[in-house]
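@channel sequence for tomorrow's demo:
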Amino acid sequence: MSVSRIPIKFVIEGVGNAEGELIRIASPRTTDAIVRALPLEGLAALWQEEVYFDIPVKMGNEKSKPTVEKGTLAYWPMGAAFCIFYGETQPYSPVNIIGKVTKNLEFFAKVKRGAKIVVDKM
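structure tokens (generated this afternoon):
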């Protein structure tokens, strides 16, 4: 396992499992804090083509970006939330890029508000 890329899995209540990777180089301090907090569990909130949920990690802006690509995993400093961008949506405010979804991105389009999502290392 690479120290710079950490494989993760998502268990999405009522939908199935997806996979991704956390990429340290994008936001090293934020990514490290999230890795230390794993496993994470939250209840899905929806915004346009994004699923997000609160996490117990408090970080400020780190190389924050106002735009993201489809499949991006990010941390939203304003809301202390883990974000999964499954469509062409752009963030409400700048986010710290932390990785990407590598398998079953389309599952996030099926997530219902309030569904439990668990994120852990593979």
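heads up for whoever presents: The chain has one helix and nine strands.
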